[in-house]
C-alpha cells in the first residue's frame, strides 16, 4: 500500500471533493439533501462544492425530485463527459488505445501494429504516437486528458510504474510510466493487464457489490487478479496472481511451460486444449465432405477423447480454484474465457471445487462463469483506463511513491478550463 499523506495543504478540501463526487457518481441522481445525509458533511459545505461542480460542468441538474410540498429539489448527477482518460493495451504485436469518459465508456479507440522483439525506446515511441494519433482522431489533445493507464502482461510494480519483466517484450526493469509521462506531461499509471480488467469490473462491472473477489481469465494464458477490501493485491514483488504457474504435475511427462518450469496449470490446460480439443474442430471441418457414416465414427472417437480432456482440464481448474477460495475467502469468483464456458469443463470444475472447499457451507454459486466470446480487445484498454479513474475516485489519503496523485481538484480545473475555452471560441463572456 502507498504511504499515508501528511501535512498536505488542501487535504481536507480534497477529501470533501472526493466524498461528494463519489456519492453523486455512484448513487446519483440524488438531491443535495441526500448528499448531506450520506456524506455527513455540513449543508453549507455540500452546497458550496456542488455549486463548484455545477459551474465547472462536472455534475448536471437532472429532473425534479418528488416533493410532498413546496418547491421540489433538482437531482444531481455526474456528467460523464466532464473529463476523459486514456487506456492502453500493450501487446507484443499491437498497441490498442481507447479514450474513455468518466463512466469508463469508450468514445474512441484505435490500434497500431508493433513489431515483435522491439527495443524499449522504439516501443515507447510507438505507444506515445498511438496515443497522440487516437487523440487527434477524436479531435482532442493531451490537455483534455486527466491521465493514461497502461496494461500489459508480466511482473509490474504498479506503485512505482516499473515493468520488471514481460513475456511479450525483451526489455527488463524499465520505468515505463515515467518515460511516457516525460513526453506527454500527464499522469501515467501501469499495471498487469489482468489487474486492469479487475479494476474495471470493481468500479463499473461485475465486482461493484463485492469488496473481496477473484477474477480469473482462462485461455491459452491463465491470469488471476485478487481484490481484497476493494484494493488490488499486488504482493511484495508485484507478481501476485500468477495462478497459471501453480505447479500441479511434477512428473517427467508433464508439459513444459513458457516460464521454464514443467507441469504448470497454464501449460497443462494449453497442452490438453491443443492436443485433444482444438484438433476436433479442425478434423471435423476437414472431413465435412466425406462419407457420413465414417465421419460419425471418427467424430465420436474424437469427441470422446476431447470430452475426457475437457473434463481433466475442469478437474485441474477445480482443484486450484478450491485452494484459492480456501486461502482468500472471497465474496465472489468471476471467471472469463472460452475454455471455462465448455459444459464439460464447467461441470467438472464446479464439482471438484465444491468437494474440496474447507467451508462446505460455501455454495458453488460463488463462482460465476462470464458468458460470451473471448474478451474483446477494447475491454482490456477500458480496464487500463480504469486505473486512472480508480485513483480519481478513491479518497486522497495516500501518496503513490514518486507519483503525483490524481485528485478531484485536477478534474475540476480541467473541466472549468474546457468550459472557458469553449466560451472563448464562441465569443461568450
TrEMBL record:
UniProt xrefs under InterPro entries: ATPase_NBD (IPR043129), ROK (IPR000600), WH-like_DNA-bd_sf (IPR036388), WH_DNA-bd_sf (IPR036390)
Pfam families: HTH_24, ROK
Transmembrane regions listed in the UniProt entry: none
Domain of life: Bacteria
UniProt xrefs under Gene3D superfamilies: 3.30.420.40, Winged helix-like DNA-binding domain superfamily/Winged helix DNA-binding domain (1.10.10.10)
Family, as annotated: Belongs to the ROK (NagC/XylR) family.
The protein, known as: Xylose repressor protein
Organism: Dictyobacter alpinus
Lineage of the species this protein comes from: Bacteria, Bacillati, Chloroflexota, Ktedonobacteria, Ktedonobacterales
Amino acid at each position: 500500500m502507498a504511504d499515508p499523506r501528511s501535512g498536505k495543504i488542501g487535504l481536507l478540501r480534497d477529501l470533501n471533493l472526493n466524498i461528494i463526487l463519489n456519492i453523486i457518481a455512484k448513487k446519483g441522481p440524488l438531491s443535495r439533501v441526500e448528499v448531506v445525509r450520506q456524506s455527513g458533511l455540513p449543508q453549507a459545505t455540500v452546497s458550496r462544492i456542488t455549486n463548484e461542480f455545477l459551474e465547472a460542468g462536472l455534475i448536471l441538474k437532472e429532473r425534479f425530485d418528488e416533493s410532498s410540498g413546496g418547491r421540489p429539489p433538482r437531482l444531481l448527477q455526474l456528467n460523464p463527459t466532464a473529463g476523459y482518460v486514456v487506456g492502453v493495451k500493450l501487446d507484443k504485436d499491437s498497441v490498442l488505445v481507447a479514450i474513455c469518459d468518466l463512466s469508463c465508456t469508450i468514445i474512441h479507440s484505435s490500434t497500431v501494429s508493433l513489431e515483435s522483439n522491439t527495443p524499449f525506446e522504439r516501443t515507447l515511441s510507438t505507444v506515445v504516437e498511438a496515443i497522440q494519433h487516437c487523440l487527434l482522431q477524436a479531435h482532442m489533445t493531451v490537455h483534455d486528458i486527466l491521465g493514461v493507464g497502461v496494461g500489459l502482461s508480466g511482473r509490474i510494480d504498479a506503485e512505482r510504474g516499473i515493468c520488471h519483466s514481460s513475456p511479450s517484450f525483451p526489455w527488463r526493469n524499465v520505468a515505463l510510466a515515467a518515460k511516457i509521462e516525460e513526453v506527454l506531461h500527464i499522469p501515467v499509471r501501469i499495471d498487469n493487464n489482468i489487474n486492469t480488467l479487475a479494476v474495471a469490473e470493481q468500479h463499473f462491472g461485475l465486482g461493484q457489490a463485492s469488496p473481496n473477489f477473484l477474477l480469473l481469465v482462462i485461455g491459452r494464458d491463465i491470469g488471476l487478479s485478487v481484490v481484497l477490501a476493494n484494493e488490488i493485491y499486488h504482493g511484495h514483488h508485484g507478481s501476485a496472481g500468477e495462478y497459471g504457474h501453480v505447479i500441479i504435475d511434477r512428473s517427467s511427462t508433464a508439459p513444459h511451460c513458457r516460464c521454464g518450469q514443467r507441469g504448470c496449470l497454464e501449460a497443462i490446460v494449453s497442452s490438453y486444449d491443443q492436443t485433444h480439443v482444438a484438433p476436433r474442430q479442425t478434423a471435423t471441418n476437414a472431413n465435412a465432405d466425406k462419407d457420413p457414416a465414417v465421419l460419425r465414427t471418427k467424430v465420436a472417437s474424437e469427441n470422446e477423447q476431447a470430452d475426457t480432456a475437457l473434463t481433466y482440464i475442469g478437474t485441474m481448474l477445480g482443484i486450484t480454484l478450491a485452494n484459492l477460495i480456501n486461502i482468500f475467502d472471497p465474496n465472489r469468483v468471476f471467471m472469463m474465457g472460452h475454455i471455462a464456458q465448455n459444459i464439460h469443463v464447467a461441470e467438472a470444475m464446479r464439482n471438484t471445487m465444491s468437494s474440496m472447499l474447507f467451508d462446505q457451507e460455501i455454495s458453488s454459486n460463488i463462482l460465476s462463469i462470464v458468458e460470451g466470446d473471448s474478451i474483446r480487445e477494447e475491454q482490456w484498454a477500458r480496464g487500463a483506463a480504469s486505473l486512472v479513474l480508480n485513483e480519481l475516485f478513491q479518497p486522497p489519503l495516500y501518496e503513490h511513491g514518486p507519483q503525483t496523485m490524481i485528485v478531484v481538484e485536477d478534474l475540476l480545473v480541467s473541466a472549468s478550463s474546457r468550459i472557458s475555452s469553449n466560451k472563448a471560441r464562441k465569443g461568450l463572456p
